Amino acid sequence: MEQVNQGARDHVYPQAAHALYRTLSQAAISAATPIAAVLVALSFGAALLWLNGFTGTDVVTVMVMGSFQDARSIGEILLKATPLILIGAGLCVAFRCSIWNIGAEGQLYVGAIAATFVGTSIDGLSVWIHAPLVMLAGALAGAAWAGIAGYLKVRFQASEIVTTIMLNYIALILTSYLVTGPMRDVSAAYPQSARLVREAWTPRIVSDMRLHIGILVAIVLAVALYIFLQRSSRGFALRVVGLNPHAARYAGMDVRRNVMIAICISGAMAGLAGAFEVAGVTHRLYQNISPGYGFEGIAVALLANNNPLAAILSGGLFAMLRSGSEVLQITSQVPQVLVLVIQGIVILSVVAFAKFRGMFAGLR
Amino acid sequence: MSSRPFLRIDNIHKRFGPIIASDGVSLQIDEGEIHALLGENGAGKSVLMSMICGMVRPDEGEIVYKGVPVRFNSPREAIRQRIGMVHQHFMLVPNLTVAENYILGRGSAFRVINDIDKVHAKIRELSDRYALDVRPDALIEDLSVGEQQRVEILKALFNGIDLLILDEPTAVLTPQETDRLLTLMRDLVADGKTVVFISHKLDEVMRVSDRISVMRDGRVVNTVSVDHTDARGLARMMVGRDVGMELVRSAAAPGRLVLSVENLICRSETGLPAVRGISLGVHAGEIVGVAGVSGNGQSELALALSGLLPVDSGRVVLNGKDITGLAPARINAHGFSHIPEDRHKHGIVQSLSLSENTILQRYDQPPFAARGMLSRRAIGTHTRDLIKRFRIKCHNENQRIGDLSGGNQQKLVVARELARNPDFILVNQLARGIDIGAMEFVMEEMLKQRESGKAILLISTELEELFAICDRILVMFHGEILGELPPDRARLEELGLLMAGKTADHSEQPTLAG
Ligand SMILES: Nc1ncnc2c1ncn2[C@@H]1O[C@H](COP(=O)(O)OP(=O)(O)OP(=O)(O)O)[C@@H](O)[C@H]1O
Ligand SMILES: [Mg+2]
Questions:
Q1: I want to staple A345 with a disulfide (CB 3.0 to 4.6 A). Which of A41, A311, B233, B404 is the partner?
Q2: Looking at domain B5-239, which CATH architecture does it have?
Q3: CB-based contact (8 Å) between B394 and chain A?
């Protein structure tokens, strides 16, 4: 029998060429699913409108071009993208650790409450101190709120899906109570808090636009979370805990601690989003300060395949759809729920395409 | 035997990206034979079988089954053609019953659910006929590995088969269970079925097969009839050299006591008494074996020592430090390495790369981490070094470990645990799924560790493994240690009796204390 050199084959492909091949093909594969899903969803949405008597070009013009009319409308998209990116990127971390935090909405509200408190009760600080303090308060409150669910999970094995949803209700009710009671601005006709002092406001990027520096913070944090997950030791442990908790325990990782860290990071991001809504947009706390950003953030993370970097794009996309639908509603009386329909289809398509890819993988 | 082959595989090629798994493989299986498939880890055995059963599609080449060229797009199509396969890693849903698992994935689920009684009856009938001892209403997660495997085999029979493919069925079985399986294979053939099975254990291959094919580097290099070969010849065909079945080792020179266990008691995950008062000591420079039929508390002993299972009472002392009840991280830090029994549960994270798997315990320690960040360069260099030293067959260190062949995954676990430079190494099934060449290598590595003064506790159901490298062998039965023997093949019978719970006076040991 001829001796076959076992190692020989391992060196046929040069390392670098393979690495490139790998990176490119992986990028292509992982981008293909969400892009296809979005295209399917958009064409479905367009078809829906077309069936209702709107012409296809109208729809595309309005939906895509409408939101990009001028700098201001782009600013509005980015304004909406800010909480979505923050929450989406944060949820990527939780989901990677297999923690199903459905409570970003509640964490956002609690963050908004804390920001309002810090922004209304202190006066006389410089903007360099007060504005960051407000953000910090929001993030800490969100983290603490999520931490309750995390604690119940690691201590009593309570499902975080259930507890975070319950905490959502508590946070919403708490907000209502505060703006109709203790924190209410009695001079106003509607339930709302007093106005934050100017120094607490999140600085704007351009003085005559609502867009504030929150978008930059969101992008920087999303990138940071990506690096954290992929490159840091702690991020590695979070991923291992999410993928195989048994192996994590075997390897000496503290599963509970990692679960707490992951859920608190996601809570902090949602809380920060809440702080920006108050300090950057409304400057007061209202009952309905979020149009459901906390839930939309779940879809953002899902579309991003739990990659915080991709959450920047998917958050931007969802913000664009939201703006587009507002334009549609104004110009052509298309109900705004359409955006919900389209978002739903995006998510369903992502799931369906992922399944499809799984089937292909099995048959390679 | 018919003149035309029952199954003919003709010049099949299969690549996974740049990795060549099948490189023009050809093979013929005759009707009514037991055909064994041998080959080194990563030779392409599992991939070839997956192509026959429709799990993987070949790139090129032809499969002719019962005289007709076939091209399966899914396992279901293969099942329809009466081809069944039991995979190296089982594919059962743990929180469903046996019967529910069988119904799963069948097109007519609703009809079948209405007929659940019929399903149960059919399972019972098949189970009786082949003495498989499978209860249709048992939950999968409550079953031992051996039982799960019988469930898998019965599942194939349930679907109806002419061809049964078994991928390393005996890797996880005790010798008794293996005997049972080999008898079953004979019974199936007597009923007119054809069996292909993959194994790394030459003795059982010699015992049961009619013909044997040897694969190497994605090709079948030889097919022989069992009468025309012997274990030695097979080994040479597989590895391309003589495999010394006997390892040379120096006399034991036990040093200080590294691990001592005093009266350890713990329960299994389901809360049943599993370890009932075990005391043992392992010294530097010795390998202590723990023999026993699986399910006698060995798994729990291993998990309790490594901090993965709570200890009810007793003490574990490592390097003079009481480590009883400490978290695994603390135990690991005291120079504790563990090659776990269930590599998919504990040993590896399938969807992570080889690199990431090699730093599973040391992800936050230098040189693999600096200032909280992973040092990819150091990790890569270290992993490449292990790949080379342990001859792990892979494309590169960034590959998903789950895509490696089973034996190569095990090699990485062994490599990782030895590389951590521990004082004490706990091994639960050393060579699970490893080919004979690699087994020899791994055993030599263990002996080297012993030489360098490490203390090793080797739990194994493979007596050969124990005889080959242990300095003394403890026998475990019903959560207790019944006796200690030297690794002397002459005392095999005594060992067997101890394993069955019979002490030297040949009387049955009381099964429950009190
Ligand atoms: N899905 C996959 N992706 C990439 N490579 C794969 C995949 N499946 C198998 N391979 C590669 O194909 C080769 C053959 O693998 P296979 O599992 O058939 O080996 P094997 O002969 O069964 O080995 P073992 O005895 O260790 O089980 C290996 O190099 C393996 O890494
Ligand atoms: Mg295999």
A1: A41
A2: 3-Layer(aba) Sandwich (3.40)
A3: yes
d(CA B433, CA B377) in angstroms, rounded, equals 31
Count CB-CB contacts under 10 A for residue B90.
16
The CATH architecture that domain B257-352+421-499 belongs to is 3-Layer(aba) Sandwich (3.40)
Backbone angles phi, psi at B259, to 5 degrees: -120, 130
Tokens of residue B221, six digits: 């290099």
Tell me which residue in B240, B328, B395 faces A3 most closely, judged by beta carbons: B240
Query: Cα–Cα distance between B43 and B218 in angstroms, integer?
Result: 5
Cα separations in angstroms, B239 against A148, B198, B228: 58, 16, 18
CB pairs under 8 A between A and B: 113
Q: Does the structure's ipTM exceed the value 0.90? A: no
Q: Which CATH architecture is the domain A74-333 placed in? A: Orthogonal Bundle (1.10)
d(CA B36, CA B24): 19
Rounded to 5°, angle at Cα B77 from B73 and B82: 140
Helix and strand totals (H; E) in chain B: 17, 22
* Mean pLDDT, each 10-residue run in order, chain A (364 residues): 37 54 65 73 74 67 64 88 97 96 96 95 89 96 97 94 96 94 84 89 88 95 96 96 94 94 97 96 92 91 90 89 74 67 73 59 40
Sign of CA dihedral B62, B67, B68, B72: negative
- Please check whether residue A255 is in contact with residue B307, taking contact to mean a CB–CB distance below 8 angstroms: no
**Opening angle at CA B268, ends B263 and B271, nearest 5:** 110
For residue B362 the two structure tokens come to: 């040391």
- Residues from chain B that touch A233, judged by Cβ atoms under 8 A, are 363-364, 369, 372-374
Instruction: Look at the alpha carbons of A317, A318, A319, A320 in this order and tell me if their dihedral is positive or negative.
Output: positive
CB contact under 8 A, A250 and B372: no
Are the CB atoms for A143 and A265 separated by under 8 Å?
Answer: yes
Closest C-alpha among B423, B380, B440 to residue B255: B423
Q: Which atom of ligand 1 is nearest to the CA of B408?
A: 26
CA dihedral defined by B139, B141, B146, B148, rounded to 10 degrees? 60
Q: Which residue has the tokens 């480590």?
A: B323
SS3 B490: helix
Q: Where are the domains of chain A?
A: 1-54+335-364, 74-333
Ligand found nearest the CA of B433: 1
Boundaries of every domain in chain B: 5-239, 257-352+421-499
Whether B294 is in the pocket of ligand 1, judged by its Cβ within 6 Å, is: no
CA angle A184–A186–A189, rounded 5-degree value = 100
Residue type, B151: V
Partner residue opposite A4 with nearest CB, options B217, B338, B376: B217
C-beta of B405 in contact with ligand 1 (< 6 A): yes
B99-138 per-position pLDDT tens digit:
888 887 665 555 656 677 888 888 898 888 888 888 888 8
> Measured between alpha carbons, how far is residue A93 from residues A30, A227, B161 in Å?
18, 11, 47
Q: pLDDT per residue over A297-330, tens digit each?
A: 998 998 888 999 999 998 998 888 778 777 766 7
Question: Alpha-carbon distance B474 to B487, whole Å?
Answer: 10
In terms of DSSP bridges, do strands B211-216 and B34-39 run parallel, antiparallel, or are they unpaired?
parallel
In angstroms, the first-to-last Cα distance of chain A is 32
User: Is there a contact between A289 and A274 (Cβ–Cβ < 8 Å)?
Assistant: yes
- Round to whole Å and give the CA distance between B430 and B283: 19
Name the residue type at position B93: V
Instruction: Show Cβ contacts of residue B367 under 8 Å, excluding neighbours closer than 6 positions.
Output: B375, B378, B382
Query: Quick check: B328 and A239 CB within 8 A?
Result: no
Whether residue B39 has its Cβ less than 6 Å from ligand 1: yes
- Residue B170's nearest CA partner among B214, B217, B202, B210 is B202
How far is residue B448's CA from residue B414's CA, in Å, rounded to a whole number?
13
